Amino acid sequence: MGVGSTSREIIMFKATPNPPQSGHKSRVEALEEKKLEDAATRALDYYLKPQPSSPSEPDKNQLFIVAPHIDTETLLANASEDLLSISTIAADLADDVDDSRRCVALAISRMADGVQLLVERALDHLETKEMAAPGTKG
């Protein structure tokens, strides 16, 4: 632009809005969208609703349930004991089989050991929190 010229701003308006997205979704897309919406709702409820909602009805197809009143420490302690049992059973089985089946049994035992370490660490963290704030239960 030279000296004395004026600049012009050109603003364009679109006469019509964008057409709506195709209303047709596959079942997979609809299911994924529902899962994301449910996850977002749970996350918002967790952070924005201070009181937990009343326990929902158990799924009628579910054979076993965990009693809702059991505290976190008890659940983790039982999980740790069960993982130790799984590891022991798989290691014992590995002694009775050969070749690839032995490798599978040892892998199950080692995986259970690893998960048990994670559960034990969670228990340690829970104990640390309880010691820092006595009188609270997870």
Describe it for me?
There is one protein chain. With 138 residues, the chain is mainly alpha-helical. It has a domain at 56-132. It is 59% helix and 0% strand. The protein contains three helices and no strands. The protein has helices at 27-48, 72-96, 99-132. The longest helix has 34 residues, at 99-132. The chain is elongated and about 85 Å long. The mean pLDDT is 81.
Query: What's the count of strands?
Result: 0
Element string (H = helix, E = strand)? HHH
- Radius of gyration, taken over Cα atoms and rounded to an integer in Å: 28 Å
Helix content: 55-70%
Q: Catalogue the unreliable spans.
A: none
Q: Which descriptor suits the 3D outline? A: elongated
Number of helices: 3
Query: Overall pLDDT, averaged?
Result: 81
**β-sheet strand percentage:** under 5%
Biggest sheet, in brief?
none
Alpha-beta classification: mainly alpha
Distance between the termini: 70 Å
